[in-house]
Amino acid sequence: MITVPFEARRFQSTAAYYLRYRIPYPDTLIARVAERSGLKAGDHVLDLGCGPGQLGIAFARLEGAAVTAMDPEPEMLTAAEAGAKEAGVEITVRQGSSYDLGPDIGKLHLCIMGRSFHWMDRPATLAALDTLIEPGGAVVLFHDKQVLTSPDWRSIVEKLAETFSPERHEERLLRKSKAWAPHEAMLLASPFRNLERIGIVSEYQRDIEDIVGRVFSMSSTSPQALGDKLADFEAALRAELLEVAPDGKFTEIVESAGLLAFRS
Asked: What is the pTM of this model?
């Protein structure tokens, strides 16, 4: 099985862009996942690989859950604390990764992950969570799928990433190859093999600043990954975006989804 090597500081330069430019998960999706999972006020939720804590904060706000937000990046945890304070909710932040899952975390009703599971040793993570998640609890993988992007800015980024960030680009292609086992296969081979998906389709209007910020929030094209090529990459990206969208406007149709995995 192919895995991506663990790199603790992979996202250290993306925190400033992630919270501002990533498309958030719709409140309706959060509410439906919480309802389906039987989440009650006070239940313990672990936001694993939390980034700036968008998911954890959303669950704390909606259900009054006791949320622990866990990430290896101090910058992400600082953003999560600030976001929770702004939202008027309390969360517990904890520096660590899936390799640090242990009984000291306490029992969980849910472990939620937003676009982070692919960075982990997935079988080992699920085995560890099996010891922590209470009967009736679940693992929930949140993700999004581009239904339509007009004009198509993603193909521009793919081409530029291949030139300016070849090693990170190769990692990304690996996760799209046939050699990469999908998350569903990993879950079906684990104790959490009863799978359901809840999806919400939304339309968004974006401008060039939004797209550039989003691109810098991705590990393959982060300021850290680009290094001294950052200025040249940004100039080329802006020029090509303006060429395909002279008015600077982009439309995106996105399906945001939660994949719920219960024990059989």
From this structure: 0.88
